[in-house]
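> agent: user asked for a holo structure of the chain below bound to coenzyme A. Plan: (1) validate sequence alphabet, (2) canonicalize SMILES, (3) run complex prediction with ligand conditioning, (4) return tokens. Step 1... ok. Step 2... ok. Step 3 dispatched.
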Amino acid sequence: MSAALEIRPFKPGDVEAVIELWKACQLVRPTNDPAKDIARKRNVRGDLLLVGLSEGRIVASAMVGYEGHRGWINYFAVSPLHRKRGVGRRMMEEAERRLRKEGCPKINLQVHSSNSEAVAFYKAIGFVQDDVLSFGKRLERDN
Ligand SMILES: CC(C)(COP(=O)(O)OP(=O)(O)OC[C@H]1O[C@@H](n2cnc3c(N)ncnc32)[C@H](O)[C@@H]1OP(=O)(O)O)[C@@H](O)C(=O)NCCC(=O)NCCS
């Protein structure tokens, strides 16, 4: 288990640290502008953008959403230096706690099929692969 992990909602001063974390975790894609993604989330249940801090520094994030049917998790990240110590598990427990409080019955999330580490992580913490194809349609171009 890791040392004390504080989990709290994102604050405006966290932008830089969170984007650095996402870059270190290879979560920033050419199609997505992370600053725009943060700004959008702050407009829609910004309290569900969670950060995890160890010794005062941001080491983890989880962008949590609920649209009345399913809970969604995006930008789920643990800093490479803090992995395999239970930080991811604890971030997900907090996400689940907050979604349960909203009455959310199920969490969905998408993971690139090549991301074997994340797949192993989700299986280890009790997620089961759904028999679905994931479709998307871009409504706005970031770049
Ligand atoms: C996936 C990720 C969040 C895991 O975070 P973490 O803090 O290392 O995970 P934990 O230490 O809480 O691990 C929880 C369980 O998952 C397992 N696990 C974690 N990473 C694993 C890996 N790379 N391979 C196999 N199992 C793994 C752990 O062994 C542990 O299982 P156990 O409790 O039965 O021993 C982290 O590797 C990460 O940020 N990856 C890059 C970003 C990413 O891909 N995010 C997901 C986007 S969909």
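> agent: step 4 complete. Summary for user: The chain has four helices and five strands. Helices lie at 15-24, 34-43, 87-101, 116-124.
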